[in-house]
Automatic annotation (TrEMBL):
It comes from Enterococcus eurekensis. This is Amino acid ABC transporter permease. It is found in: Cell membrane. Residues 19-208 form the ABC transmembrane type-1 domain. Its main location: membrane. Coiled coil: none annotated. The lineage of its organism: Bacteria, Bacillati, Bacillota, Bacilli, Lactobacillales.
Amino acid sequence: MDFLSAFSWINIRFLLDGLLVTLQVAVVSIILSFIIGGILGTLRFIKIPVISTVVMIVVDIIRNLPLLLIIFFTYFALPQIGIQLSIFWSAVVAMTIFESAMLSEIIRAGLVAVPKGQMEAGRSTGLSYLSTLYYIIFPQSIKLMLPPIVSQFISLIRDTSLAVVISLPELTHHAKIIYAQEPTAVLPMFVAMALCYFVICYSLSVFSKRLERRWAV
């Protein structure tokens, strides 16, 4: 009875409010990181002198830092240099920085995996380098990139829980508030959080697999 009583409508609604914030942070971060990661990955692929090297160094540094450290940096360190962000945008900026670095490597690897002959064939038809990249290389590489990109997005959704350290009112934070007030609700809240994350992440995985099968056909 204690287990079931933890799932009162008040608690469920409070958890759903937190889940909404989780999804908002994840969606905004996914969109921004995909755009920025795509640009960075492309810059590394086309090997522009100096710029590509700088991008490579920055990406490698970020990829080898813990996400939690980046969250602390955006929330606590940026105000020291005059950049004041809300809790929501501190989380979004941290997630975007980290995921952009991860995605840039995935995108670069996907572009590199396309046979070099495809670029040569495109150029031989009179297309410019960028046109060949856009019309020939990218459409082929996206099929290779999709599984790791979706896996990275799933990781991002799970990693939003780390923003609880800066009191982002997301799912984990709201669950903590509930079981802090109701000690018997600890197990039910962990079950509820696990279910929410599982449904979202599993749905993304299923969507990715269906998309892969469709493109394969």
